[in-house]
Amino acid sequence: MAGMDRLVVYYDEVFYKHKPWFFHPESPERLRRAVDSLKKSGLWSVAQVLPAPVARDKGLALRVHDAGYVEAIERASRSGRVMFDSDTYVMEYTYDAALAVLASVRDAVETATRERGLIAVVLGRPPGHHAGRKGAAMGAPTLGFCVFNGSALASVLLADKGHSVLAVDFDLHHGNGTQEILYSERRVYHVDIHQDPSTIYPGTGWPWQTGEGPGRGTKVNVILPPGAGDDVYKDAVDKSIEVLKGLGLSSVDYIVFSAGFDAYTSDGLGFLRATSASYYYVGKRFLEAFNPRSVIVVFEGGYSVGLERGLPAFLAALLGGDDPVGDRETTSSAYIWSQYRENLGVLRKELGV
Ligand SMILES: [Zn+2]
């Protein structure tokens, strides 16, 4: 398979400085595990590793968030340790780290638009896909560990340059912040594959949520029942692509991946059973199907084994290599298949494809 030619990873000390003062799954340890896994699989040595740009422009946050929210994060960060909501902590370095994610995203976009065949990975934290315009999005109870939304920013910056964009969110949880920001945005298609929202945070991402106004019919939510394994996951990837093609999307200039690895079996926060096979398949199939010039990858969730086994499989697929992990694939019960197909039926009906 023909993959991309070059891997760039934005990675910086500042991404470790946002850290909890108590036990919390969203901790700097996640980055250490991610980097260790890239080193073990040989991907780190083929990557060009770049620091986050020093200029961290608040204007980037204002491109996707309201001023009131950006200022509330800035204030909370200045004041020290604060539980911004029941899930999400903010501390001294949160604002700087979150702006560094956005600055890296902008640099990734600039580089990707100059170069063909580039994979630009923003390996930063805090994550962002649950952060909407005013904070918690689409009625979600909390920000779900997220602060500023890098995926949404990458998508709108690319669209502003006149490029066609597909945002693909394969984190376990629905990317409700990204979806809210892009909901009436016709220029960006957004497909989100996640665990059934009736069973997990943030409780959104239903098949009938397809966008509004000019964005109507550009948002695709594919939901997976708890317990779904690689067989269902891979089918969901195929069906997502089929649906997007049915909506008239034949190829795109850029794909922006919201890359979370928490759907990996026993990663810790959810009940999906994906293995390296699913992550490899996501990368490979979306690349083949839409033939982008370059791709942007924004790091989202993933808390343990998903970082060790899902992340390298995904990036290896984008580079056109073999799956370096090679997990044994998981399978799903007939009951899970039937629930999954029922949801897919609703999606197709809503979108008319
Ligand atoms: Zn997640």
CATH fold call: Arginase, Chain A
The shape, in one word, is globular
Percent helix: 40-55%
Query: CA-to-CA gap between the ends?
Result: 28 Å
CATH superfamily: Histone deacetylase domain
Q: Identify the bound ligands.
A: zinc ion
Alpha-beta content class: alpha/beta
Radius of gyration: 18 Å
Number of spatially distinct domains: 1
Q: Helical element count?
A: 12
Give the overall average pLDDT.
98
Defining traits:
8-stranded parallel beta sheet, globular, 12 strands, 353 residues, Arginase, Chain A, binds zinc ion, 12 helices, single chain, alpha/beta
Report on the structure:
With 353 residues, the chain is an alpha/beta fold. It has a single domain (6-351), classed as Histone deacetylase domain (Arginase, Chain A, 3-Layer(aba) Sandwich). It has helices at 14-17, 29-40, 43-46, 58-64, 67-79, 94-114, 150-160, 176-182, 230-246, 276-290, 305-318, 334-351, and strands at 6-10, 47-50, 82-83, 89-90, 118-122, 131-132, 135-136, 165-169, 188-195, 219-224, 254-259, 294-299. The strands form three sheets. An eight-stranded parallel sheet has the order 2-1-5-12-11-8-9-10, sandwiched between helices. Helix 6 runs parallel beside helix 7 and helix 10 (276-290) runs parallel beside helix 11 (305-318). The radius of gyration is 18 Å and the shape is globular. The mean pLDDT is 98. The protein binds zinc ion. Zinc ion binds next to loops. The site of zinc ion has 7 residues, from loops.
